[in-house]
Amino acid sequence: MRYLITGGAGFIGSHLSDELLQRGHQVHVLDDLTTGSIDNLRHLRDNEGFAYTIDSAENAPVVAELVDGADAVFHLAAAVGVRLIVESPVRTIETNIRTTEVVLAQAGKKKRPVFLASTSEVYGKGTDLPYREDGDLTLGSTLKGRWSYACSKALDEFLAIAHWKERQLPTVIGRLFNTVGPRQTGRYGMVIPNFVAQALAGRPITVYGDGSQQRCFCHVSDVVRGMADLMERDDVYGEVFNIGSEDEVTILELASRVKEATASPSEIKFVPYDEAYEEGFEDMQRRIPDTTRIRERIGWGPSMSLDEILADVIEEHRAGH
Ligand code: UDP
Description:
Rossmann fold; seven-stranded parallel beta sheet; globular; 321 residues; 40% helix; two-stranded parallel ribbon; alpha/beta
């Protein structure tokens, strides 16, 4: 198969490129490098099945041409990270909506199946846990910038499902939960690369709020395996799948585990949310996926534990990548 990956120079997109190439497919990456990096793809330069174009997924003629040369599309191009979203809400909203409109419209002309990478953020602050794909979304006020991300991705989901229902464009949606692993940068505020970099440098490990909030972390290699598996099926169109780990950890516990695993002298420092993000910032206390659907439909489940994930990220940071 020939796959187009929008946002393929990002953390997850670059691992997806690796996975698809390993499966014997061809990959063409489209990325404007706003948050992606060519460094993430450097190791693929000499791979015959690999090519890339540096441009925006909002550029319809470019997307049209690339879709024409592909059998299917993974649409990952999107604004990334809560920090960026709070700081640049206009860009976040516009990027998320425009790129998805363009990709679905162009894929629609050629009837190329599309995988839409969505996010657990769409569940918002719902407390009906674990989150099920058919459960309600609980978003906060439009006065709180964070929720613009969830809302824009939810609209992307509506649009993908509408293309399937109304125009028979094959689409499938993956809601990715906290995904971590090598090549993830701490630049956009993600907690594990941040903690590991802080611990290795002997700087304070910054726990936002009181650290009692919980997350489930899944290794990126498990996540991209699930994405590739879903796209090899033709009986999942119009559906939404959670992709993530169900293994919860508090952020304070995470900080201690990183400190221990790196044998770091760093202190653990509590930073109020208002200082870390913006005044009135709302975080979700817990976020757990119900992965029954993806397990039952395609037999997917994560294979790596949090300790293995941390060891992998620490090794990468120590190697100075
Ligand atoms: N967090 C933290 N310290 C950091 C970065 C993040 O305590 O240096 C917290 C953040 O407030 C959230 C959790 O870690 O509760 C996960 O944050 P991340 O940005 O990785 O993903 P999110 O779950 O917010 O999408």
